[in-house]
Amino acid sequence: MTPLASVLAAGGGKSLLLVIIGVVIVAVLLFLFWRGRRNVEERPSPPQEPQPRSGSWEEPDSRDNDQ
């Protein structure tokens, strides 16, 4: 075993603390992801019928010129 590996293996108390902190962070991130997905699913869907000015990339005068 290399000296660095033996030093890293000797710090068992700190590594356990870091593992617990890592698990808590992952759990919080999973909870926030789940909550965000639920919020997105609860949003009302956009209306299906055409909306006024749905072709808003056209200039208002361009429709008058076509007629």
TrEMBL record:
Region (Disordered): 40-67
Keyword list, A-Z: Membrane, Transmembrane, Transmembrane helix
Name assigned to this protein: DUF6479 family protein
Transmembrane intervals: 15-34
Organism: Streptomyces monticola
Pfam families listed in its UniProt record: DUF6479
InterPro entries: DUF6479
The UniProt record lists the keyword Transmembrane: yes
